[in-house]
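Hi everyone, sorry if this is the wrong subforum. Our group has a chain we'd like a structural model of before ordering constructs, and none of us has done structure prediction before. Sequence below.
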Amino acid sequence: MRHLMRSARSPIVKSTLVAVLLIMGAGNRVRAEGNPPHFSDLPYAGLFEPAPARVVVLPELSHAVYKGPEQPPPRPVHAGFGSLVRNIGGDFKAFPQRKSTWVILGIGGLAAAAVHPVDDEFNDHIQGSDTAANIFKPGKYLGYGWVQAGVAVGTYTIGRIKSKNGGTPNKLEHIGFDLLRANVLAQSLTYAVKLTVRRDRPTGECCSFPSGHASVSFAVASVLERHFGYRSAWPTFLIAGYVAASRLLDNRHFLSDVLFGSALGMASGWTVVGRHGHDSFALMPVKTPGGIMIALTRVNASSSQR
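Answer:
Right subforum, don't worry. Here is the predicted structure as tokens:
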């Protein structure tokens, strides 16, 4: 443990932590496709709650539409196997077409390139602590593709069983539906890059770049963040980071593998949930006996599920 504390003071470790924070921060900023991020969407927004303000409605602005904070994605009309296959195909098509995909991958790629020269030195620094290795050992199992896929299949199956006569999918079925899609997309892209780059692991065998544990864990975290909101789902990102760190302490990956894998996972997860519709809020002036009040009406955009 003393060895890890000395390592934490290393300039290499400090610069690495900054790179990780950059990826996580950029990911939060681009999750709403095509729209600038709202301050209220940021994890730390609650620390700076503005004081209540008087709202003045001008006649020429009465039809303005405010894009509110992201709501849970609307449920698909169908979530059967046929719909699942069609949506997975649509996910692969949508992935390269989303601007946020290239922003997230660009940040992940730059971070990976920045730490690549010190990959070996970083791994040497964090090895040797049996205590740390034991603490992070469960992450090895949590991040296995078959474990993540098994959870997604189980969630989807239970939701299907509870669904009434094949009607509109329930919440559990919808989450499993999206988790399955995120797993397929993230793992397929990860192994495509692995087989293309063919980088050796720290232990000498193929294939290291990017980390599959990191990619699938962050893909799942990104899906759950949209379904439950960041206030409820932020622990899933901590778990994803824990899984990614476990691959370093297990000496199975380099830091650059984990950074790019995390970015690839977030881009995959947000591609899946980013194809859902978004809620809009219309501000409408309403005449009252004492003057005018503002009515806030939610307008639900149509779902892009097919």
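For your construct planning: Residues 171-197 form the longest helix (27 residues). The chain is about 60% helix and 5% strand.
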